[in-house]
Amino acid sequence: MRIFKVNWYPPANEELETLFGGVASFDIDPIPTDPAYRIARERSRAADALINCSATHLVPADLDDFENVRIVVREGVGYDNLDLEGWGARGVPVCNVPDYGTTEVADHAIALMLALTRGTSTYTEVLRADPVANWGFAHAPLIRRHKGATFGVIGLGRIGLAAARRAAAFDMKVVFFDPYLPNGTELSVGYDRVTSLAKLMEISDIVSVHTPLNDETRGFVGAAAFAAAKPGLILVNTARGPIVDLDALAEALKSGKVAGAGLDVLPREPADPDHPLIKAFAAGEDWLRGRLVLSPHAAFYSPDAIKDMQRKAVEVIVAYLNEGRLTNCVNRQFLKQPAPVRRAS
């Protein structure tokens, strides 16, 4: 069994070679620095399975080049950078790894909130500039009490629920919007439910985004959502950058309707240095000071999470090619014919 890992980034998990004896080889192709880069066809033809390691980069080859691939796996949770329909038309299942990094992302969402509402990032910044003159508590503009504040969650899936539980531990009131969960979910989790994004924005002090990126959610948190927002809202996004309209967020921050934002993801990654909001952040403009916290799509990361992610991606492949057992498939609706499974020798 030959597994091709594209858009790979370190560190490598050396344990994989010993954990999976049925894997003949791992062919690893790092994230290309040249946008014109294409994978050589002899490499793509040799693969029995394909893993896309990156959350944002496309596979640098045509689907037809992978004529022997029987399964594709996104080494992570999000799969918006894979052609679900195209692979499905070829009878190839696309799977993801939903059961890693949940705690890391939920922790990170709360950490971004705390960086703003407890001022930790702002205090560090001003004290680095002058640890004597800036020794004071008034430098962080968004300090507030968490007990009794409302924490709104967009998308109460695995990560959204984990973030909600953490917010509840701060004695915050949790409210969620998720039209795809069945009636009664609110009774089982003990959180209030609203039926529109506008209502969630209207009543929440903090809103944390935990929905996947698709045609429905692209730009979902935009001008209309911010217009409905409770004055002083803080937005946290650890999901996907394009879910939040960055132009609309910049306007809402500039007007003061939104008090602050903690973003782990952006519509363009790395950050677009020419976007007005990113420019203002990088320049340390006074109006934005203490109101925007950025991290580099790192919410998923811990050394343990990386190992889990890499191992679980291979587990999905081995289970399918060796046992015919398909797990975590995200393109079932596009699988036009059964995908033939060749037993690995």
From TrEMBL:
Annotated source species: Kaistia hirudinis
Stretches assigned to the D-isomer specific 2-hydroxyacid dehydrogenase NAD-binding domain: 110-299
Top-level taxon of the source organism: Bacteria
Protein name: D-3-phosphoglycerate dehydrogenase/C-terminal binding protein
EC number from the UniProt entry: 1.1.1.95
Top-level enzyme category: oxidoreductase
PANTHER family: C-TERMINAL-BINDING PROTEIN (PTHR46029)
UniProt GO MF annotations: DNA-binding transcription factor binding; NAD binding; phosphoglycerate dehydrogenase activity; transcription coregulator binding; transcription corepressor activity
UniProt-listed CDD domains: CtBP_dh
